[in-house]
Amino acid sequence: LFPSIPLVAEEDSTFLCSSSASSQGDEDHSGDYLVDSVLAAVADKANCGGKSLTSNVVLEAIDRGGKDAFTFDEQPATYWVLDPIDGTRGFLRGDDTLYVVGLALVVEGDVVFGIMGCPNWKNDSLPDNNYSSMGAESKTETPERGTIMIAHAGCGTWSRKFSALSGSTTRIHNDWKKCSVHPCSLVHEAHFCIPDSQTWESLPFSSLYSSTADTTSITDKQQIVLLQTCCGSLSKYLLV
To answer: Which residues bind Mg(2+) per the record (predicted)?
Structure first.
């Protein structure tokens, strides 16, 4: 989409294609080991209209965000900014830790459009009474996963579950839910989130408030709800 608009990302394919990187010191692997691994991972998830993906197609897509993909003016008018995996540490674990794919459109120096996709987001992970605008569903034994959130300057913020996206094109607008910032005005009414590498006791607020992950166990105004959800990624912005 929009091939005329430059894309700024974090990497190009140089590392993947270099012989030193591809072998990683393992003599049992050929020079294309990393490229083949990336191709296999992308082919497992991507839909290319029935066409088979090739390594050249994947590498060219990666290079679209590289430093040499476009020649920028000193002050480019319009460009995309992409962070393909925000929360890399959690992503590499391969568990349920949240990571985010972030994309933004910058026009004349201002961010005018943003998209965040969070594949591991549990759609029942937030209390319904406080975050109904996020589209959180009632708790089930096997909650649906994945959410996408979009924001347009002057038009608000909207979210949609991944399950609503698959196979649905005719009623696209009916499935989007408008988001709003949590209306709390007091500290003990707010929900806090911290990276899983930190503890509540390491933060300044811990001297004034105790924490709990159980929303039903709050007994006084000196206790706050702590959500262990983010791994230093953009997922914290989904919460607020």
So the answer is: 10, 83, 85-86
The answer to whether the annotation marks 83 as part of a ligand binding site is: yes
pTM above 0.85, yes or no: no
The edge-to-edge listing of strands for the beta sheet with 223-227 is 191-193, 223-227, 210-212
DSSP secondary structure string for all residues of 116-167: EEEEEEETTSS-HHHHGGGTPPPP-SS--EEEEEEEETTTEEEEEEHHHHTT
* 85 annotated as belonging to a binding site for a ligand: yes
73-239 CATH pick, 2.40.128, 3.40.50, 3.30.540, 1.10.3470: 3.30.540
Contact 79, 3 (CB under 8 A): no
Residue pLDDT, tens place only, 81-140: 988 888 777 777 777 777 888 999 999 889 999 999 988 887 655 544 334 333 333 344
